[in-house]
């Protein structure tokens, strides 16, 4: 038997399909008589799209608003992808509003967009304190998901600093002593935390961080950093894979070989990193798992579920490939 559509429901109730859609989305401004007609038509036709059954039982909206910052980057894009898959499997639909997470006005405008709808919760890719402050100032009375650090609470280290710590340990294990760090924008929380992990472990392992550079997550900024890399450096840790790939390209233009002259390790394990020449050593982050974890935490809060039963996601892990190697005695460049 063919499933009923919203157009079938609209004809049965004698209303427009837009009215049926507004009813299913939790819009309150529908006259009681019209609401009763739509309700009756839904029941008569046994209309049950994803999430509609929940709405009919509990009057709880099945829409979640997402504030998305820099989705063109591998990390944020994969977090939202994981969140979207988790939401869809639970019968929720998403309203996504793009924002500039470094601009408070942009965050406010994105919040205005998603708050125009009847939403059950807010999911924010909160890479900056600007985003967190803007949301806090709103004093929203609906569940919010921003920080997934508790999803990695099985480690004694700060989970956000673990990628930098793993990179420093790897370079120390290879015998490097004079190293550099290429970071993302320091306005980003992840950039600060990855640097913190790298600097702390470098100090513990006796590495000298002789040079640092602040990029913008792009391969272009990694390429620019290669033009300034001091000759004494034998290894570079880079806060994401895109900048690491740009750095390697820039070093090649200077006649500096990777890993023979300089070892390079990135962070993220972006899909293209293992296909680079040489294949990029990196720290794998479970972005999709993080997005699913955050979304399932949010849905547990919305539905009054037990947040402690939400499955954790994977810890960062080292992926050693061809761009890092044991330091050579005469490895420093002139």
TrEMBL record:
Q: Give any Pfam family that matches.
A: Peripla_BP_3
| Hydrolase keyword on record | no
The keyword Transcription belongs to this UniProt entry's keyword annotation: yes
Q: Which UniProt keywords apply?
A: DNA-binding, Transcription, Transcription regulation
For this protein, the record's Gene3D superfamilies field holds:
3.40.50.2300, lambda repressor-like DNA-binding domains (1.10.260.40)
Gene Ontology MF terms in the entry: DNA-binding transcription factor activity; transcription cis-regulatory region binding
Segments forming domain HTH lacI-type:
4-58
Report the protein name in the record: LacI family transcriptional regulator
